[in-house]
Write a structure and sequence with these properties.
about 270 residues; two-stranded antiparallel sheet
Length: about 270
């Protein structure tokens, strides 16, 4: 478990949870409560919407606190960097692409990069995301994708409740109530559009990066007939070889073991 104390990242996390709480309040009280008056359908929609928000929060917490794939540092922190780069380490680097980080002295595998905010090297690092206050790496990418999925799902649900309210809202409402509902509708609509575009764009970028990375690995192996990965294949690559319905659960049900080579440190 990790927790970053970066102030900007914590501020972004605060904005995220404030937005979730406001969305829950506005949809539950003003949209669902205003159109279904807490009937059986109203209660079912409230439970359904809050269940989606619960999975969204759990996915975000997992992405924020999960080890993204931190590369272990050298046992001797005072080791001379020139000595580390010589002899067996240089030979290993030439053979399999492993390198030694000059900032944290970690023996990092191909695809690992040093994060200046975290101060560590991260396996298959994509970027440091302030919205989860953590790096996006090999071990927490799936939680980020889960979070983005539930953001889109909650946005669709929210938009549906907004439309439903204005179609079936009670007649003869006072001007104050109408103005209040209109204000919340405008704010929710803006949030739905903004967050949906953001989530879809980030998700598309992550899927594209995985596809490109996999194709590059195949080229390095000398493969001549390289086929583009399908979305399903990318999902299996990220979430593991488990039933697709389990991809939606923000739990570590199938942690794929990475090929970390401790021999570089012990041989």
């Amino acid at each position: 478990m990790v927790f970053r104390t970066d102030m900007f990242g914590l501020f972004c996390v605060l904005i995220t949870y404030t937005s979730i709480c406001y969305t829950d309040y506005a949809v539950t009280v003003h949209m669902i409560g205003g159109s279904m008056s807490y009937s059986v359908w109203g209660v079912m929609n409230i439970m359904g919407f809050n269940f989606i928000l619960l999975l969204m929060v759990l996915s975000h917490v997992r992405a924020m606190t999960c080890d993204p794939g931190i590369v272990s540092t050298l046992p001797n922190k005072q080791a001379d960097y020139n000595l580390i780069k010589s002899e067996k380490y240089s030979q290993q680097e030439n053979i399999n692409g492993w390198t030694v980080c000059s900032k944290c002295e970690a023996v990092k595998p191909p695809g690992a990069h040093h994060c200046r905010i975290c101060g560590r090297c991260i396996k298959k690092m994509d970027h440091h995301c302030p919205w989860i206050n953590n790096c996006i790496g090999e071990l927490n990418l799936k939680y980020l994708l889960m979070f983005l999925f539930y953001v889109v799902l909650a946005s669709i649900y929210c938009a549906t409740m907004i439309i439903t309210y204005w179609l079936v809202h009670p007649p003869n409402l006072s001007s104050v109530v109408v103005d209040t509902k209109t204000m919340h509708t405008a704010i929710l609509s803006a949030m739905v559009i903004l967050f949906s575009i953001f989530a879809v764009a980030i998700g598309y970028d992550q899927f594209s990066a995985i596809r490109i990375q996999k194709e590059d690995q195949e080229r390095m192996k000398g493969e001549s007939n390289i086929m583009a990965m399908s979305i399903k294949e990318i999902c299996y690559e990220v979430f593991g070889d488990i039933h697709p319905i389990l991809w939606l659960i923000p739990l570590n049900l199938n942690r794929r073991r990475t090929g970390a080579r401790q021999a570089l440190l012990t041989s």
